């Protein structure tokens, strides 16, 4: 049996590993590198992800996969500090004292916000799927908390669609990020970079006989009798990890869900200085061409990166990124944080049109089954990634769809 997997990201690789035990597997990846949004740049003496990534304490499928690949010893737990950039000032918001000192929320607002954080893991997310996040926050925490704290975050991430985003997504995000201590959020990272996971999965799949073709975009999918042709090549089964509507476009078939997606443009910068006062994740309340400044080397040790500070500027877009976005982001960053251009050692901009679903109200009803129209579908749009996408969810989707395929052919 020959299986084609469209997409060499986490879901595609996670599915390939068990499928190679009983079938021939070919992976088509459109880009030169595997990993999807988990792909990495190779600098002179270190690797750094195109988009910032970390894992969480409950990511059991990820931990099991790392054990199987012999990579468990590379996983480490680090503290991620947070802050808010408001009116040109950096406000740290990691410790209880820092939160109490934050001037843009009243004490009552802070109490309500703290109580929501404590309750988030116990709330019924299914009941919140149809409730807009903006409506939920206004009703339960008040207008001032929404306007001063949540609205800028929603605006920077979802732009004009911020009022469509469901409370299920927001509460899930709060819950998953509530593993906090006085030094910050407890987050997992791979010593040496997540490319080790991607490379480990690819090497194991190839060891078991998988064929991986990078730089090979899929341009056509066609049903031929009891088989499929992908780019004119015959396969018994096709697993697509790209958005369902793209499968409909490539195949000419109707009936695939139109999953709302957004794009991401993430600039990575190598600097000679720290500009966020030791803070890992700095959200931007002030209007800027990016919504957060994520200083990776305030999370992972700087000495691993040739003594450079490594900073991400995170930006999201709808149909397409703004023209000259790289110049806009870098110019704004240097001006806002008083960084001379000579302090910037290098910069790269990664752009992904389908970076992730927009979890609008009613999203639960859009989630496709693992098998539709004779094809298998899995990815960031699958149920394990609802209502918040993660590496854990993408691995789970790949493993679950692989079990479905194996069950169908046995």
From TrEMBL:
<feature type="domain" description="Amine oxidase">
    <location>
        <begin position="10"/>
        <end position="405"/>
    </location>
</feature>
<dbReference type="GO" id="GO:0016491">
    <property type="term" value="F:oxidoreductase activity"/>
</dbReference>
<dbReference type="InterPro" id="IPR002937">
    <property type="entry name" value="Amino_oxidase"/>
</dbReference>
<protein>
    <submittedName>
        <fullName>Amine oxidase</fullName>
    </submittedName>
</protein>
<dbReference type="InterPro" id="IPR050464">
    <property type="entry name" value="Zeta_carotene_desat/Oxidored"/>
</dbReference>
<dbReference type="Pfam" id="PF01593">
    <property type="entry name" value="Amino_oxidase"/>
</dbReference>
<dbReference type="InterPro" id="IPR036188">
    <property type="entry name" value="FAD/NAD-bd_sf"/>
</dbReference>
């Amino acid at each position: 049996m020959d299986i084609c997997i469209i997409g060499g990201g986490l879901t595609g690789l996670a599915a390939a590993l068990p499928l190679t035990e009983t079938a021939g597997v070919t992976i088509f990846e459109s880009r030169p590198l595997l990993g999807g949004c988990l792909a990495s740049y190779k600098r002179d003496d270190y690797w750094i992800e195109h988009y910032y990534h970390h894992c969480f304490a409950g990511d059991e499928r990820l931990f099991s996969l790392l054990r199987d690949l012999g990579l468990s010893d590379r996983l480490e737990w680090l503290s991620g500090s947070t802050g808010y950039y408001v009116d040109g000032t950096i406000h740290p918001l990691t410790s209880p004292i820092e939160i109490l000192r934050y001037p843009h929320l009243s004490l009552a607002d802070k109490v309500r916000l703290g109580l929501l954080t404590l309750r988030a893991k116990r709330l019924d997310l299914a009941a919140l799927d149809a409730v807009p996040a903006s409506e939920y926050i206004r009703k339960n925490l008040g207008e001032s908390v929404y306007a001063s704290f949540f609205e800028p975050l929603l605006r920077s991430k979802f732009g004009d669609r911020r009022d469509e985003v469901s409370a299920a997504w927001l509460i899930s995000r709060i819950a998953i990020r509530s593993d906090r201590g006085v030094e910050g959020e407890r987050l997992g990272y791979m010593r040496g970079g997540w490319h080790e996971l991607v490379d480990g999965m690819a090497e194991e799949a190839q060891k078991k006989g998988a064929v991986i073709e990078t730089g090979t975009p899929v341009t056509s999918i066609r049903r031929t009798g009891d088989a499929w042709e992908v780019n004119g090549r015959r396969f018994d089964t096709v697993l697509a990890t790209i958005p369902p509507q793209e499968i409909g476009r490539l195949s000419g078939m109707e009936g695939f869900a139109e999953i709302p997606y957004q794009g991401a443009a993430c600039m990575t910068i190598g600097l000679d200085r720290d500009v966020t006062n030791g803070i890992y994740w700095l959200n931007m309340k002030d209007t800027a061409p990016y919504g957060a400044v994520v200083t990776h080397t305030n999370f992972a040790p700087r000495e691993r990166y040739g003594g450079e500070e490594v900073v991400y500027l995170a930006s999201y877009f709808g149909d397409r990124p703004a023209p000259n976005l790289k110049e806009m982001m870098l110019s704004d960053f240097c001006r806002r944080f008083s960084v001379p251009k000579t302090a910037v050692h290098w910069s790269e901009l990664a752009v992904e049109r389908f970076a992730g679903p927009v979890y609008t109200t009613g999203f639960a009803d859009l989630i496709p089954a693992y098998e539709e129209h004779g094809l298998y579908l899995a990815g960031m749009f699958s149920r394990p990634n609802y209502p918040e996408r993660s590496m854990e969810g993408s691995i789970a989707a790949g493993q679950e769809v692989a079990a479905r395929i194996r069950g169908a052919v046995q």
